[in-house]
């Protein structure tokens, strides 16, 4: 048997820089109320959301990703040519082939970096971060650009009063690279596919293409099959996101050996402020911990929400470089991922 | 030992007070969680989870929708507590 030379990576990995991109158009609740029978007060009390950003035609998945990744690279002080891999997590890039990560890798100016997309819904950032850490430590890439990006406005049913107000667009990115100290803790992750129907796409692309003869499909006023949208069972998701995810978040803290008093920042997926509040309460975190509430002005941006919230906290000074942060993503799948990181 | 209806209502009153800030004396059998007590669908989930722990009972999501009044919840817990 021939001996295979092992790869050589860094002792540890950490996040070196973060960047975000929010589309220029700010959409207040008043705009949402044009298509649903609700009120600003109801939307705010159920979700905490006041405004969200919706992308225009130029703010594509690729364009928003490039902006966010460019900022993250600049913040990290890393040249694109040093990047060995680009990982993009998204559920709203409507061109499945080729992976959008390849276009982003080329436009960023990487030297033929490995590039691929993953799909893990709102847990996507944690999944991609875990892959990036593995690559850096294992040695297949020295620096990895991780991007969470969504144009959920394209997958929103504006006539559904339970979800029309929820979703937003944007991109968040981090650069992961070598470190002498552990900067990304063990990931506690998993999936519960038996609950897959709790958060889902209303209509599959194939059923959408076949058309209205499938009488079970939702139709619009003209009798055409309604464009696919993301739908969810609110109460079931809330219960899972708060009470099951509190256990996962605690496991991530324990796995990293971080006690409540050592934690500076809590960055949960920005799904809904009520989930954030209840999760914080259930976890019994000290009041001194800074909690990300980017959902108020960004809405739920799925895979983009954690890096966007991280970027916002660092920009406002609410969190600072070197802070210890608990991040947890959870959503469609149902899939989840939690870990403790040192902020860049 | 299984709780009596009276104990269950008193327990629910404490839970509703803790979660929604409603005075315990307002939590009566005939009161609707949403219409009378201002407990919205998400707070209802928190009430249910707290009640599950307190009374050692499982209340699945599909059953939560049937619990309109405090009396509905008390009856459900009475029947299902172990």
TrEMBL record, chain A:
Domain of life: Bacteria
Keywords: Acyltransferase, Cytoplasm, Fatty acid biosynthesis, Fatty acid metabolism, Lipid biosynthesis, Lipid metabolism, Multifunctional enzyme, Transferase
PANTHER family, per the entry: 3-OXOACYL-[ACYL-CARRIER-PROTEIN] SYNTHASE, BETA-KETOACYL-[ACYL-CARRIER-PROTEIN] SYNTHASE III, CHLOROPLASTIC
Enzyme class: transferase
Purpose: Catalyzes the condensation reaction of fatty acid synthesis by the addition to an acyl acceptor of two carbons from malonyl-ACP. Catalyzes the first condensation reaction which initiates fatty acid synthesis and may therefore play a role in governing the total rate of fatty acid production. Possesses both acetoacetyl-ACP synthase and acetyl transacylase activities. Its substrate specificity determines the biosynthesis of branched-chain and/or straight-chain of fatty acids.
Pfam family, one: ACP_syn_III_C
Pathway, per record: Lipid metabolism; fatty acid biosynthesis
Family of this protein: Belongs to the thiolase-like superfamily. FabH family.
EC numbers on record: 2.3.1.180
UniProt name for this protein: Beta-ketoacyl-[acyl-carrier-protein] synthase III
Reaction(s) catalysed by this chain's protein: malonyl-[ACP] + acetyl-CoA + H(+) = 3-oxobutanoyl-[ACP] + CO2 + CoA
Stretches the record annotates as ACP-binding: 270-274
Domain Beta-ketoacyl-[acyl-carrier-protein] synthase III C-terminal as annotated: residue spans: 253-342
Organism: Streptomyces fragilis
Alphabetical list of InterPro entries matching this protein: ACP_syn_III_C (IPR013747), ACP_syn_III_N (IPR013751), FabH (IPR004655), Thiolase-like (IPR016039)
All copies of domain Beta-ketoacyl-[acyl-carrier-protein] synthase III N-terminal, residue ranges: 116-193
Active site: 122, 269, 300
Automatic annotation (TrEMBL), chain B:
Highest taxon listed in the record's lineage: Bacteria
PTM per Swiss-Prot/TrEMBL: 4'-phosphopantetheine is transferred from CoA to a specific serine of apo-ACP by AcpS. This modification is essential for activity because fatty acids are bound in thioester linkage to the sulfhydryl of the prosthetic group.
Domain Carrier: 3-81
Keywords assigned by UniProt, alphabetized: Cytoplasm, Fatty acid biosynthesis, Fatty acid metabolism, Lipid biosynthesis, Lipid metabolism, Phosphopantetheine, Phosphoprotein
Positions of modified residues (O-(pantetheine 4'-phosphoryl)serine): 41
Known pathway: Lipid metabolism; fatty acid biosynthesis
PROSITE patterns cross-referenced by the UniProt entry: CARRIER, EAL
UniProt cross-references to Gene3D superfamilies, sorted A to Z: ACP-like (1.10.1200.10)
Domain EAL stretches: 1-82
One Pfam family hit: PP-binding
Function comment: Carrier of the growing fatty acid chain in fatty acid biosynthesis.
HAMAP family reported for this sequence: Acyl_carrier
Protein name stated in the entry: Acyl carrier protein
Species: Streptomyces fragilis
Chain's gene name: acpP
């Amino acid at each position: 048997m021939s001996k295979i030379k092992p790869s050589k990576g860094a002792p540890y990995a950490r996040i070196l820089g973060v960047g975000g991109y929010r589309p220029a158009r700010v959409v207040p609740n008043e705009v949402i109320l044009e298509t649903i029978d609700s009120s600003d007060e109801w939307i705010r009390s159920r979700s905490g959301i006041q405004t969200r950003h919706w992308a225009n035609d130029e703010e594509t998945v690729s364009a928003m990703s490039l902006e966010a990744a460019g900022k993250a690279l600049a913040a990290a002080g890393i040249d694109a040519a040093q990047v060995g891999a680009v990982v993009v997590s998204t559920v709203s890039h409507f061109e499945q082939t080729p992976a959008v990560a390849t276009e982003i890798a080329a436009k960023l100016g990487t030297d033929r970096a490995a590039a691929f997309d993953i799909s893990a819904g709102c847990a996507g950032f944690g999944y991609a971060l875990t892959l990036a850490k593995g690559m850096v430590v294992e040695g297949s890439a020295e620096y990895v650009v991780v991007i969470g990006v969504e144009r959920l406005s394209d997958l929103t049913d504006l006539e559904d009063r339970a979800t029309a107000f929820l979703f937003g667009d944007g991109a968040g990115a981090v650069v992961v690279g070598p470190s002498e100290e552990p900067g990304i803790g063990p990931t506690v992750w998993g999936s519960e596919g038996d609950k897959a129907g709790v958060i889902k796409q209303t209509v599959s692309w194939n059923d959408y293409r076949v058309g209205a003869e499938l009488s079970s499909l939702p139709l619009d006023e003209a009798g055409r099959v309604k464009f696919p949208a993301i739908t969810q069972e609110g109460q079931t998701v809330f219960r899972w996101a708060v009470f099951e995810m509190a256990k996962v978040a605690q496991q991530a803290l324990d796995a990293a050996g971080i006690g409540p008093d050592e934690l500076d920042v809590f960055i949960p997926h920005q799904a809904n402020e009520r989930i954030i509040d209840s999760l914080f309460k259930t976890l019994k975190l000290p009041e001194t911990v800074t909690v990300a509430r980017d959902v108020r002005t960004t809405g739920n941006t799925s895979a983009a929400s954690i890096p966007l919230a991280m970027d916002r906290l660092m920009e406002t000074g609410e969190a600072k470089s070197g802070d210890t942060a608990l991040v947890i993503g959870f959503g469609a799948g149902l899939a989840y991922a939690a870990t403790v990181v040192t902020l860049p | 030992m299984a709780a009596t209806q009276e104990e269950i209502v008193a327990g629910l009153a404490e839970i509703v007070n803790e979660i929604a800030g409603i005075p315990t004396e307002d939590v009566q059998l005939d009161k609707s969680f949403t219409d009378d007590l201002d407990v919205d669908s998400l707070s209802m989930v928190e009430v249910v989870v707290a009640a599950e722990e307190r009374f050692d009972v499982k209340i699945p999501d599909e059953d939560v929708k049937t619990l309109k009044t405090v009396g509905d919840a008390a009856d459900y817990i009475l029947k299902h507590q172990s």
